[in-house]
Amino acid sequence: MRFQAKQKHMIDFLFPVALFFVFALSALTVILLAARIYQSTTESSSLNYTSRTSLSYINEKIHQNDCEGAVYLDEFDGCRALVMEQSHNDEHYYTYIYIYGHELKELFVKEGAEMTASAGRTIMEIQDFSMEEISENLLKFTCVDNENTEASTIISVKSQ
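Structure (tokenized):
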């Protein structure tokens, strides 16, 4: 009886190696594409954070303090400001939101307290911020962030 020796061909070696390289190249391509998508999503999210966050913050503050005549636009220390009045234990308090030196600021004070615009707490740095009263119960806010992204919103004051 004669045993046949199995002959090895070059293709027996080249096929698995070529398959491995195709798999490795495909995996590397998927990783690079995912990294690029993640980077663009992060940059987009960062841009939206600055311009839209300030407007969302103001929207929530208005809705928290929305009672008869308590939300209006006025001047505070030479700055155009959103003013929100609150009463607690027969004492009146005011919250001012305004722009001062390229910063959106918020200041909470008791009625009669003398404060300056520089005393406010910084909410975030922005390039420009404008407020206008469109009608009796509609306020328009426009924010330009440090990347020159402009966003605006119109908020209804429902209690007026």
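The two ends are 106 Å apart (CA to CA). The first helix runs from residue 10 to 64.
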